[in-house]
Amino acid sequence: MAQSTRPNRLFRNLNAKIAALPMIATALVVFIGFTVWTIVHSFTKSKLLPKLDFVGFAQYERLWGTRRWLVSIENLAFYGISSLVFSLTIGFLLACLLDQKIRFENTFRTIILYPFALSFIVTGLVWQWILNPEFGVQNIVRSLGFSEFVFDPLYNADVVIFGILIAGLWQGTGFIMVIMLAGLRGIDQEIWKASRIDGIPSWKTYIFVVIPMMRPVFITALVLIAAGIVKVYDLVVAQTNGGPGNASEVPAKYVYDMMFKNQNLGQGFAASTVMLLSVLVILIPWAYLEFGGRKGDK
């Protein structure tokens, strides 16, 4: 009996399996295949064209000995940690405000979410104009009589990353707010009724009851933010193009410049592989928390 049922299971939903073959082939060839190809060539001294001339870990040693790459890692670390903290905090607070069933909720939600519909290039250009000292915030404040006011973060190497962070938060916080709001709307209203009856302040209910219940929502938002942080590129190019000097350099721009401007594929592949490892560092804990934790609960 067991042998006779195996063919039936194999051919069950056959049309759906056949329809999925192109997607599976694309995933295997494009994603897995080219990922392995990139990793292999990161151990070569490929220049203008890829070639299997292996040099061991020489590209990685050179990579971590390059000041420009180290600056890009420092910038990404600061931008990433700040973006995670502020996006989650501001997004959750905005969601809490909108969850109070305020008037014109749809209007406010649309206004806050609207920047997310813009591309990073558009966002970068908009904030480049806003932060430009000649006709942006600095010029407006000085026109009001504060002639000594200085606000030019994109032209100051010490604080340029803050200017990029402001633009990133402006675009992405609305999306996090919507995710958090969906999570809040999924909380049973009986919990709020019980907390009011027991005289528990709302802020304690949020911290000790609501936030723990929204753990999957926070994890999802965390992964989405982190994935966007690792590949941040357009925003930097549009606002500063990595300047002044290399003060706002990020890993994705370093990879692009190595591969297409400096024609050093081996170095670009090595940097890409390091970025891939950083993504895996994010995805593996997320997969464990999402799926491993559920199995443990059972």
TrEMBL record:
SUPFAM superfamilies per record: MetI-like
UniProt-annotated location(s): Cell membrane
Topological type in the membrane: Multi-pass membrane protein
Residue intervals passing through the bilayer: 20-40, 76-98, 110-130, 159-184, 205-230, 268-289
Residue ranges constituting the ABC transmembrane type-1 domain according to the UniProt record: 73-286
Keyword hit for Transmembrane: yes
Any Pfam family the entry gives: BPD_transp_1
Keyword Metal-binding attributed: no
Name of the protein this chain belongs to: Sugar ABC transporter permease
